Structure formats: structure tokens, C-alpha cells
Amino acid sequence: MRQVDRSWRITFNYSAAAAVLMVAVIVCLILMRSRFGLALRTVRDGEHAVEAVGVNVACVRYTTLAIATLITGCAGAAHYISSMYISPACAFSVNWTAMVIFIVIIGGLGTIEGPITGAFVYVLLRE
Q1: Which of 115, 112, 80, 90 shows the shortest CA–CA distance to 101?
Q2: What would the pLDDT profile of 88-102 be if each residue is shown by its tens digit?
Q3: Which of 7-16, 57-66, 77-86: highest mean pLDDT?
Q4: How much is the pTM?
Q5: CA–CA distance from 101 to each of 1, 12, 110 (Å)?
Q6: DSSP string covering 69-101, please?
Q7: Over residues 51-75, mean pLDDT
Q8: φ, ψ for residue 37 (rounded to 5)?
Q9: Are 118 and 106 in contact (CB under 8 A)?
Q10: Which residues are CB-neighbours of 108 under 8 A, at least 6 positions away?
Q11: How far apart are CA 127 and CA 111, in angstroms?
């Protein structure tokens, strides 16, 4: 088995994480400025009123779930490239969930730049 150079692996880890971040932000910006984003916001505000107008709520929810799953899977893959070890205890711990909720609340709910700001604040406080 061949060993991978540590400096190359760290550079690849940060590059992969930055690429996932940029793609996720661009996808969110494009989605929220499209007709689908308008449907998504209206489903959030009033599901029954939107159904009366003619928006297929189930389609909006399933599409949102698929997009969120794809982005989350890519982010998880980028995270676990750095640890080189995967176990259910690492991925589904309470600390991981609390950290993500803390980041989102610090940055602000309902905005795209809020969680990014929260992540910067969290990393600065942790370091």
C-alpha cells in the first residue's frame, strides 16, 4: 500500500472543502432567485394557500430533499477525507449536531451568508 504525502493530502482536503462550499453557495443563490425558490419560500409560509394556487407541494419538498442530500453528502465526503476514518459514532454524535446548530444560530437564520459567518466565528472561537 502506497502512502500519500501529508502536505498533498491537506491541500486536497482544503481544496475539496472550498469547492463544496462554493458549489453549495452558488446552487443556493441560483435556487433562491428562481421560480423554484419562490415556490420553496411560499411552501414555507403557507402550504395550503400554495396548494390552492397550483404549486405541487410534494414535488417541491422532494426536489429540496434531493438537492440538500446531494450537497450534504458532498460536504460529508469532504469532511471524512480529512479524518480518513468513518464510524457511526463520529458521524452521528451529539457534538456534531450541536456544533452545526450553534454555527447557524450565531450566523443568523434564513440567510445564505449567515451560516458562513457563523462558521468563521465558530472557528475563531475554537482556535
Answers
A1: 115
A2: 776 677 887 888 888
A3: 57-66
A4: 0.72
A5: 39, 27, 13
A6: HHHHHHHHHHHHHHH----HHHHT-HHHHHHHH
A7: 90
A8: -65, -40
A9: yes
A10: 114, 117, 118
A11: 25
The residue written with cell numbers 450541536 in the block is: 98
Pair 107, 113: CB distance under 8 Å: yes
74 with 20: CB under 8 angstroms? yes
Give me the mean pLDDT over the 13-39 stretch.
Answer: 89
- Burial class from Cβ neighbours inside 10 Å (0-12, 13-18, 19+) for residue 117 reads middle
- Report the alpha-carbon distance of residue 29 to residue 94 in Å, rounded: 30
Instruction: Give the orientation angle of helix 6-32 with respect to helix 35-45, to 10 degrees.
Output: 80
Lowest mean pLDDT among 14-18, 23-27, 35-39, 46-50: 46-50
